[in-house]
Amino acid sequence: MNEMTKISRAQRPYSPAAAKFIARKPQLFINNEWVDSSHGATIEVEDPSSGKIIGQVVDASDRDVDRAVAAARAAFDDGRWSGLAPMARERIMHRLADLLEANADEFAEIEAIDNGKPKGMAAAVDIPGAISQLRFMAGWASKVAGETTAPYTMPAGTVFSYTLKEPVGVCAQIVPWNFPLLMAALKISPALAAGCTLVLKPAEQTSLTALRLADLIVEAGFPAGVFNVITGNGHTAGDRMVKHPDVDKVAFTGSTEIGKLINKNATDTLKHVTLELGGKSPVVVMPDVDVASTAPGVAGAIFFNAGQVCVAGSRLYAHRSVFDQVLEGMAATAPFWAPRPSLDPEAHMGAIISKEQHDKVMGYIAAGKRDGASVAMGGDAPSSEGGYYVNPTILVDVNPQMSVVREEIFGPVVVAQRFDDLDEVAKSANDTAYGLGAGIWTKNVATMHKLASKIKAGTVWGNCHAVIDTALPFGGYKQSGIGHEQGRLGIEAYLETKTVIIQL
Ligand code: ADP
Fold first, then answer.
1. Where are the beta strands (DSSP E) in 259-408?
2. At what angle are helices 180-194 and 104-115 packed, to 10 degrees?
3. pTM above 0.85, yes or no
4. Which of 42, 66, 47 is nearest to 231 (CA)?
5. Is 276 labeled as catalytic in the residue annotation?
6. Active site residue: 310, 346, 356, 464, which one?
7. Whose CB has fewer CB within 10 Å in the chain, the N or C terminal residue?
8. How many C-alpha atoms does 100 have within 13 Å on its Cβ side?
9. Separation of alpha carbons 88 and 297, rounded Å
10. Residue located nearest, by CA, to atom 2 of ligand 1
């Protein structure tokens, strides 16, 4: 811990390119143009590493949203995008990925400044992840196909039938602040590949990389109106998007609470809805593991991105025989995860997104202690010059009724519990309203498969955590979501299926 107190938490200077971009006039991207809002309202952009206000973005009005939706509607209805040859759509998407690659360093810096995550993490995970989403989905543009059945004869004549896969239409895409560009890419990539048009709304805390991405849209060659960006608050701009009669589909990633609200609000116009929501993902450590390699993995499962990950391994179940060693091994990683400003090259964990979220995380730790939990590591906020830091934290002596065990904290806090046998731990792992991810650490293949089938979660990791394969679907069981992103199911979520039956 002494190591941690010596760390300077003063944010480092921004590069000239990032500083210039951040200082830009607040505008919206509609119809391939930068336009002023219909009113003067703005949202402050804060650097969570320093707590300083560094810029402004538009707080979009209803009229701004209507304008963006109208642009997307017109672009969809005249087929300027869906009517392009699939390979042409694919090429434009790859061009966008190329441009992102060419500007990766600037994107990583802007993401780090805006979100508080280490620039090195953004450069290693967020930006390449976004590029992978674009490239993977680009390929689907030319591979989407329907089915045909053999013609057959009825008394009235011969019938020939087939299905057409058609883009769903205008998509409202609303993303959270934890992986701003990556979440945006997860949304826009299948929509664009399918031939949809869209209005993207980044989270009010982290709008910068979505706006920077818009700069590349024209250069990549997208026709006007296909991709539009609205910045603004959820309960105003986001709400307008969800209820808008000219929007055909809503895709949302965020909290379960807002996901439920969005699902309700989209009902009046019966929009297609996909939701990727919260989690309280269990991580199970079996007695046969090599503790030396498992403990850092289990620590990474919760401390990566300061625990602000929907699949964060926030409930640790370690077998009684290895529990103490696993915790010791995790505690040894504390200096590695010591929070630092996002532009510190040595940072592996950055700041929490906002004061509000910082206070919420500290509030959970306090509630855990009040309920009888003990702090095995961290449990406090380190000294800093502004900024919102929380030390990586392990809570023990917890029970299943405590809020720290039941609720999504969305911070670097893991609750650790002991177990004795497989059925018991499967039951504990499933004792949650969520079902997004789960981790299993064992060398025993049979145990791995048995547990993987027992745990009710959309993704189960074995001896790793939060690894993403763009070719495979990602989605939640129970209150963690509806529908899937990525893989074949990811593109399907942006397609209508039309059956055509013709009497020849
Ligand atoms: P978090 O709790 O992680 O901040 P939220 O679920 O509140 O996440 O927000 C995720 C995204 O949803 C953000 O882009 C936010 O602006 C948007 N949002 C919040 N409330 C609404 C709403 N009522 N309708 C539409 N979008 C919303």
1. 272-276, 282-285, 315-319, 374-377, 393-396
2. 120
3. yes
4. 42
5. yes
6. 310
7. C
8. 29
9. 42
10. 255
